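Hi R.,

Here's the chain you asked about this morning:
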Amino acid sequence: MISHPSKNTNKLEQELTFSKTEAFAKWLDCSDNDLKDLFYGELLPGIRAFKFTLNSKKLTEMINSLQNAPFYIRVYMGANPNAVFGTSGEQPAFKPFTQAYNSGNLPPDMEQNSYFFEYVPVELSEIHGNVQQIPRDTAMLLVQNWLDVDDDKIKYTLNSPEGRLRFYSFGIEDTSSIKRVFEHIKPGDAVLNLYLGCYPPDSNGDQIFTFRTILQITNGTGISPNEDAWFEFSNPCPPLC
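And here is the predicted structure, written out as tokens:
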């Protein structure tokens, strides 16, 4: 089990100053061999990043922007535009972000209804919560797979014959459940966690991405059995763009 000394994470909660468009372009520009370095930072040396959070304020803004209509969520891959490939900074350079949009109404601007997830330097043993959409054991197995993948095989989890992973889309069925759970959590307490996971990578690159994005909506403490929901069944781009 992973362990690490306690860290003060207040500085991690500051708003990022670069754009989602720049972060997305930086992700696509990264070479296959440098992908592995995006997931490490000096805060937790040697521990690959696996958890990111959309705080209550951002989550509330995102859901309120949708005017109670059915909606989709895209989880985009991104990288700090200021990152120097092949090196690591204080935080991991990987910067995923989410964009929410109504059915058939994808915003033309990647910045609209779009929010960065914040990196959370936690250990696997701190993950709690009841599971409704996928079994908790399945979610944790995917996360552990991600942590166990050798650095030189990370590129195989994020690429397919059709190109580099760009985003995952969560459909109306998932987002309706997310909104339903959100509405039953005390205002100001709901957060959306993004966990990184994968299935064992295909070193031949012959199959679709083995990397997975796992969403969890929770009351922030992760211990209320009726207020947590996990989602993994999403569509990758490419090919489903």
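One quick note: The chain has five helices and twelve strands.

Cheers,
M.
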